[in-house]
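So, read this over?
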Amino acid sequence: MYIAMNRFKVIKTEKAAFENVWLTRESRLDEVPGFISFHMLKGPEREDHVLYSSHTIWASEADFLAWTRSEQFRAAHKHAGGQKPLTIGHPEFEGFEVIQTLDNPRLKAQTPSPAAPSPAAA
């Protein structure tokens, strides 16, 4: 498994515009082999920016690299840089190979399925 992250230093006054870009975009990640999940994270506020990070999980680094050369990648990034600056500088990329994953088995046992009513609702 491989985790690809981009860190964005978003200008404080552009938080809403930055979030809107991500929340309204057509990602097409689900069309790409090896894509597992995506999260956009909002981090701490600093003196001149708010830190955001995109966090994408791939089956392998090869799958991630194939995505960067895909039509889906080009489509997802076609408007990048087309509007006024929302960030301080360019995003900072970090890629990680997963060496261990731990899941909480008790959490899975306690989580009701979406189709099943919760005990309180019955």
